[in-house]
Amino acid sequence: MLLREVEYAKPSSVAQALAILSENDGARALAGGQTLINVMKARAASPDALVDLSGLEELRGIELGADGTLSIGPMTTYTELVGSAEAKARPILGEVCAQIADVQVRNRGTIGGNLCSNDPTNHLPPLMVSIGAQLTIAGRGGERVVSADEFFLGVYLTAVGPGELLTKITLPAGKRDGFAAVTLGVDGTCIASAAASVNGSLRIALGCVDATPVLLQPASADEGAVREAVRGAGLFPPADVHASSEYRMHLAEVLAVRAARQASERS
Amino acid sequence: MSENAAPVSSSRQIAVTINGTLYEREVEARKLLIHFIRDDVDLTGSHIGCDTGNCGACSVIVDGTLVKSCMMLAVQADGSSIETVEGLADDGELAALQQAFSDHHALQCGYCTPGMLMSATALLRTNAHPSEAEIRKGLQGNICRCTGYWNIFEAVKTASERVAK
Amino acid sequence: MSATTDSSTTIAPDRVEILAPREPYKGQNVPRKEDRRLVQGQGVFVDDIKRHGMGYVHFVRSPYAHAHITAIDVSKAESMKGVYGTLTGEEVASLTDPFFQLSTPPGAHLKDYALALGKVRYVGEAIVAVVAETRELARDASELVEVEYEPLDAVTDARHALDESKPVLHEDSGSNLMWEGVYEWGDLDAAFAEADKVVKIDELHFHRFNSTPLETDGALVEFNRGTGQWTIHTNNQFPGFAQIMMGPAMRCGLDKLRFVTQDIGGGFGNKITSHPQLVVCCLLARKLRRPVQWTEWRTDFHMSMSHGNERWFHDTEVAVKSDGTLLGFRTKALDDAGAWLRYEPLGGVIWAQVTPGMYRWRHIRLEFTQVATNKAPVSPNRGYSRMQHLWFTERIIDIVAHELGLDPIEVRKRNYIRVEDMPYETPNGCVYDSGDYAQMLDVATELIGWPGIEEKRLDAAARGKLLGVGIGSTLDSGTNNFGQSRMINPELQFSGNNEVATVKLDIFGEIVVTLGTTPQGQGHETTAGQVVADILGCSVDDVHVRAGHDSYWNSHAGFSGTYASQFAVTGLGAVKGAADMLAEEIKRLGSVILGGVPVEALELAEGTVRIKDNPEAALPFMACGAIINANNAGLPEDLDVTLNCRYVYRPPFEVPDLERKFGNLTLTYAAQVHAAVVEIDPETGYYEVVDYAAVDDCGTRINPQIVEGQVMGATAHGLGGVMHEIFEYDEDGNLLTPNFYDYHVPHALDMPPLKTGFVESPSPFTSLGTKGMGEGGGAGIHAVCAAIQDALRGHGDAIVSDSSNPYRRVWEMLDHPDTAGARVQVVDA
Fold first, then answer.
1. Which residue of C has its CA nearest to A248?
2. C238 and which of A133, C6, C272, C400 could share a cystine (Cβ 3.0–4.6 Å)?
3. Which one of B102, B141, B144 has the shortest CB-CB distance to C32?
4. Other C-beta atoms within 10 Å of A222: how many?
5. pLDDT means per 10 residues in chain A (267 residues)?
6. In degrees to the nearest 10, what's the CA dihedral of C486, C491, C496, C497?
């Protein structure tokens, strides 16, 4: 509950932020803090310095392009996403964000933080994978774009490396999405989850069953095809106090079918 | 764009307004906002009930936004205006929510109550006539172990009706 | 006004306005006195208290479930800037004696010190205390304490705790057996001979969880070097017990341990056994010559504090007639006490307050075995030890009904103790004072819409859900006879019970009440005020009840505290006694001052003592207080009036017959009947409680709203317990649910709709007709278990065998019902 000593900086530009992150090996970006502060309270990780991104206007905002593309700043909070008129172009975004934790967490927690912390039970990583989002990463040397498929590398590990920052999340146009989860209590932590998107073809991303979201591309949204895709993915879901590996596997199948059905039934 | 380095320091001087009063203090960067409020400024109405940001007993309103102050650093609140339970009553006259909580027996031990009142206050500011479902959603981040919440829903409903009058 | 004893003096009172007599406060929802301060954040909880120069305590805790401690080095911690000092188990062992043990051998031989000595026996056990200038520094310094361990195998399954192959936790006792006893009443052989069928249930399990009060344990302790007295500001809810445990251990008189509490953020029994941590704080305050402050972390609470009893029921056999009449049962109860006996093994007898549950069977045998395991020590949790047993009896009802194809409502009605049987003596001599269980069941089934349930079931099925409805009936036995402790250990010198209150009239007529209790939200200030106001004939607003508990008030006795559902009987009994005494004294004084009028001709009303037939002849309380406190010359020598009355309430108990294990163990029996409707998603095992009804009977209700609040809170605890809350350990003894992230506590979105009802069957045994209530008895757990089992009929027919039913267990019962539920056999008798 009590943090180790830490240094703090509040840069006023992305360039400043990148400079501090590059120059301090032990520096970490602080977004909404709804995960990182808890991690530090538990002393599970203790960065040497925190770089507070809350002053960086460049990292905020939601833009809806004429072609239906959504461009989201990583410091956008869940509450902002739920209330955003632009974000309604992709309704699943607000619908899922409204289920994350509670009002207080949604007021501070950010989409960027959710993605970069990449806790296997987070809602947004599988959703970004099923949607096929593009993530823009900036470093001192410049910018690069990584697809969601390649952004999540391991538990708490993403393609954002030391000295880098996620600066934009871009979603292609589309509305045919679904999300299904079994959670610990209503709107609680996910025990198992599945996100699905139909954009021509069907993409299903499973959460909670592996270190990173597992992408499946079954031939159709039919129950049989989806279940087969899940079973054929070679999964060994983790066991914990909420689910055995077998139960989690079973839930993954059921939720994948439900998410796919939801996505297909949207117009 | 200027590349003048932003200062990186393990403590800072901060200025925070709480319930209308300005407090200027030097704090360690690692100090949680809830500890600043309770220990540095001696406003002990906001409480701590857990280690993981789940219970909501520490809920306060920062620049109009409801937050859990155990998941913010005091330095992050530099320059903000904070409202805590101590600021709800007007010179001893209870706010509608406070009175309604008492009328409906929406508190027993009173430990979750300050955080619950702040969450309810924030809810009624964004939604003056919430349905029961909206009340539940607005209070989901506040754990109570005494009441089972049912009387709390009634109290918020009553307060919303009284304020509307 | 002048007052003399000269009979010729007349009183010229101020003009007193005669108002119509007001409604008694008893039975009214008087607004709570506590609320004003609590809604403004002006409550004083222990972490709110500060002292200049105080040091903050942080405990170094064991990462191992079972290990020898081979070395402890605090030197680096002590030399860190800002650290005031440390305390280790060796110091504790040199300064204190082990805590008194309630058990007989082998449990009696445990050597329980305030810090681990030589060995750690559960993950989270406190080993070293570090004190520093700030909370953060104490935490930092604790990481510099070096402890070396030699890990040992851990015992984590009570069913194997007595196996030869398992390590023994306490060398001093030589066994993991902590206590055992056999209880038998009636004639089991005759019962089983008379039976048509025997229903055999191999294993039922009540899980480990507790009520997780939102405020954790804590203390701020000051030591007065000159007087040798400690002032312990704390939220311990049973100071009487804490003093009795601490005094002998600390080799000091109980008067050196002053307990002060004001507001407590929930207790539910979980704040009874904090005495080890309090001893550590006392020793540190004395050693370091400064006040020390300790607030328990949420994680520490989960890992180390007051887990509820985990209990197995093995080889249960129930003797039944074909029509569902229950004749008796035998079972083997195995209780997992965790690593230390702190209030245990009292759980080994306290269940016997409700031996037959709510049912009329007369032939019962229960073998009780309590063992130690490498888990957190068990101590009271809301419904302590009765909840486990009542769950067991309710499971029997539903299992018998299931196996014999009978309606669980009918089986209950057939077997409930009847209103005409009250007061009812149970097979072991407990006396249920009053209650109409059948009527409560009717109210509950009506509230839940029982006749329309089949339609709801079809509607749910159309939505792909399995709907189930279940009843949970339970008792809340209140006001313990501590003589039952002698059934655990005949050498114990405890019996009966008590509580204390004082009521006085001050010099300006202010009415001041002090209580020995330590309320944690039950509204004692308010209900005590209501009782006093009714007796003294004044406004409840003029009764000032001091908040909290303070040993200095001399308002406490050996059993003082707030626990075991007894305030409405013991606390209010003491308040009534003191107020009656004061009323009597006021009248005797009034009799003298008002010219020798007989006491019977006087009444108390509107804050005065006055002549019934001539109400204008009235002496206001202020005058009474002034005369006795400051103007008493000329009063008759034999006028024994102080207007400062202290009363010790003592319930009418005998020491139980230890050989037959027979006698009245609790004075009152409140009851609750709940009904729950669940909808299960058969594809995932996820389920919700979609409707709920709770009916309560706690006798006379002084403040109905407060009573209902307790029923609601107990319901919420039951729902949390059955659906989500588990203190679950892995094989190595690691607690998998050490915080609220994994230990899910119900929040606002999790609660079902709730309908409540009540019946009032006054107790014939208490001064106000009240019964203790508040713990509840876990009806929510019983009802949801029954509802789940009902939903699974026709879908595997699994028998719910565990009190804990998170989604994964429901799925298991759907997926492999034969192995996931209880294994039940029905044989002809």
1. C808
2. C272
3. B102
4. 15
5. 96 96 96 97 96 97 97 98 97 98 98 97 98 97 97 97 97 97 97 96 97 97 97 96 98 98 94
6. -100
Look at residue A203 and tell me if it is in a domain: yes
Q: Residue A16 maps to which CATH number? A: 3.30.43.10
CATH 3.10.20.30 fits B11-84, yes or no: yes
Q: Which residue of chain C comes nearest to B114, CA vs CA?
A: C41
Tokens representing C54 are 């105080």
Are C640 and C663 contained in the same domain?
A: no
Tokens 């031989």, located at residue: C109
pLDDT in tens, C483-526: 999 999 999 999 999 999 999 999 998 999 999 999 999 999 99
The secondary structure element, H or E, covering residue C487 is: helix C485-488
Using a CB-CB distance cutoff of 8 angstroms, which residues of chain A are in contact with residue B29? 5-8, 50
Residues in B touching A11 (Cβ below 8 Å): 6
The CATH number assigned to the domain holding A227 equals 3.30.390.50
Q: Does some domain include residue C179?
A: no
CA-based angle C172:C178:C179, to the nearest 5?
A: 135
The CB density around residue C709, as the number of other CB atoms within 10 Å, is 26
Chain C interface includes A143 (CB < 8 A) = no
**Nearest by CB to C749, which of A186, A191, A244?**
A186
Can you give the residue range of the structural domain that contains A40? 7-51
Exposure string over C361-376, b if 16+ CB within 10 A, otherwise e: bbbbbbbbbbbbbbbb
Select from A186, A189, A244 the Cβ nearest to the Cβ of C808: A244
Q: Which fold has domain B96-164?
A: DNA polymerase; domain 1 (1.10.150)
Both tokens of residue A198? 């139909």
Neighbours of C119 (CB within 10 A): 20
Q: What is the pTM of this model?
A: 0.96
Given a contact cutoff of 8 angstroms between Cβ atoms, the answer to whether A45 and A30 are in contact is no
Residues on chain B touching A15 (C-beta within 8 angstroms): 1, 3
Say if the Cβ atoms of B71 and A33 lie within 8 Å: yes
3-state DSSP assignment of residue B11: strand
Question: What is the SS3 assignment for B60?
Answer: strand
The Cα C237–Cα C347 span in angstroms is 18
